[in-house]
Structures
1.
Amino acid sequence: MPIIVNLDVMMARRKMSLNELSDKVGLTLSNLSILKTGKAKAIRFSTLEAICEVLNCQPADILEFKKED
């Protein structure tokens, strides 16, 4: 998939665990894990907004487009 999820990178930069992010964003641990591992097929803008607010970042810090060869 050409959309890459860099949630794990941003969490590492902010030194935040999945459990801590789950508590602060209000998403289940399993849903955040699916997003973190790149297995998610979609993300709500409200979820992206909450993650960006907690991690103090921009959506482009979380999602990246890479053209497939």
2.
Amino acid sequence: MKSNSDSGIISRRPLPGLAALTLGGLLLAGCAGNPPTEQFALTESSVKEAVSAGGTQYAPVEMRAAQEKWREAELAMQKKDYDRARLLAEQAEWDARVAGRKARAAKAQRTVEEMKKGVQELREEGMRSVQ
């Protein structure tokens, strides 16, 4: 009688552990198997925005890094290495954001310098007309 109840306990204990292990494995397989399509859309948008902001001209190093990582991410996606593709796409997105911001900052700086030059020319012209 005692041995029956002991065998019942022994047979019940591994079941929750096995179920948890199976569930964890399924979750991991589900996460690793999904292509990073949302991240790719974000990265593509960031790269296009950086190019239109002038990233190629004003931040060539960051822009080149973004485009190279973007190409590597696409290759990883073709090989169905989704974790690597996601990582490279994230890095490309941030490189593109940096390039876009550097380009906008450089353009703003150029505009400020042109405005200062215009103000200086107006002052000099005003001084000439007073004399």
